[in-house]
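INFO  loader      accepted 1 record
INFO  loader      residues=118
INFO  predictor   begin
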Amino acid sequence: PGAFTPTCSARHLPGYVEKADELKAKGVDEIACTAVNDPFVMGAWQGANGASSVTMLADGNGDFAEAVGLTMDGSAFGLGTRGQRYSMIVEDGVVKELNVEAPGDFSVSSAEHMLGQL
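INFO  predictor   done
INFO  writer      dumping tokens
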């Protein structure tokens, strides 16, 4: 998954844009999105989705995804190594919740699911 991929563009990122105020009301300081894409693609994706409430973090070489053990092989789709679809609650640098999707799924990483965990 990544910028401009079908599920991430139609449901994942837009959910966080739509629920940004609710997340902040529950104490979330920052909503961040990482993807194994370059910063120019991430900026374009942010603009295309009106996602000014979301900090876009380019993981161009996949170093972050690899460091946290959340890479996937998207070579069959011409994507190379990508980050898995997930959501994470981090408090004071400590991961409190980690929700990793099964390949092709979209449920536990949604903004709605995260709201239920806060």
